Sequence to fold (68 residues):
Amino acid sequence: MYYSPNLKRDWVCVNSGWYSNALYNEFYVFNNGPIGNAQYGTGQSIYLNVASIEVGSGKCSNPLPEEG
Fold:
């Protein structure tokens, strides 16, 4: 899930089967990206801020925690 349209700026990834009923929690933030600037998504809540999504393959290197 990306902070900006067209798969741009910072992102978060989740492993297959991940789910959450509380995306508003403070630990669900954009935590990957080369820019490292809040203007581009770093540290911003993913709640209501996801602008684009891509389905990938493989495992996430820094996945969001699952509240389970």
